Amino acid sequence: MVINRGRYEVYVTCPRQYYWLYVRNRQEPVIGMPLRYGSAVHKFLEVWHKLYQLDPAIDALKQDFKRTLNQQSVIPLTLQVEQQIMAEAELLCRKYVERYGTETEYTFINTELQGDAPLANGHSLRFRIDGLVGHDNKLWVAEHKTTRWLGASFIDSFTFNFQVISYVYGSSKVLKQPIAGTLMNFLRKPQANQEAAFHRMLVVTPPSHMRDMLMSFSYIASEIEDKDPTDMYQFPQKTKECGSCQFRNICAFESDPHGASYVPRPQDYVDQELANVTV
Asked: Would the pTM count as exceeding 0.85?
């Protein structure tokens, strides 16, 4: 996440999407089930790798589902479906503990670490990682991913991913120690035709990858700084990503993003930290 003079850049796929989210500060009033599911499982993993106690971790999973209950899709889920999805997530988490509960290969040192690291030209990177692990006498960033598919192309897409690389860079600067790379921790959700499955992959991050990320993120931040925040056309659309974008209707029909279909984006940890930034 790149912060620049009180504004900041999230790694999104489209400049116009960034404009609606972080200049106009809007979002849909709902949160999709995949995001609710992933959030709850991340909360389980945070508590599990901190305490290594199953009951508190399962309680954290359930509480996170309840937290987002009123933010579910426009067509509310029935109680039966909600309970079924929660049970599916709990099954995934219990299977995870069965698989890794007695592991010794990776030592989780910290969970939900966040920090602020310098970029070029006065910009900075504000980030939060899922955890930090020790392996083979080296430190690694832990990145959890819940997914319904564990195909080779999906897994390989993380071998050179600027978002993941930025976590390695940021952590190395904040901790003032070398970070070897990322432990990608994949959890495949159980479905009617497949069981829960897990896959771990170490992605080494060489200095050249961090340099590429550093220059790319710094360039993006400088580019955003030069734009007029009152002119949305200075944030062009990338139409190939429009199909799944929550702001598709605004761009297509020029409807008012301040209308009933959208609400102010809730503050996150970056907004809270920005309150302390002197412009």
From this structure: no
At what angle are helices 162-175 and 207-225 packed, to 10 degrees? 100
Please answer whether residues 130 and 112 qualify as being in contact, where contact means their C-beta atoms are separated by less than 8 angstroms: yes
3-state SS class at 111: strand
Query: Three-state SS string across 246-261, please?
Result: CCHHHHHHCCCCCCCC
Rounded to the nearest integer, the mean pLDDT of the chain is 85
- Both ends of the chain: CA-CA distance in Å? 17
Domain that holds residue 186: 107-220
Task: Dump pLDDT digits (tens) for 224-252.
Answer: 888 998 898 999 888 776 877 878 878 88
Residue 127 belongs to domain with CATH number: 3.90.320.10
Could you tell me if residue 11 is inside a domain? no
201 contacts: CB under 8 Å, gap ≥ 6: 155, 158, 183, 184, 186
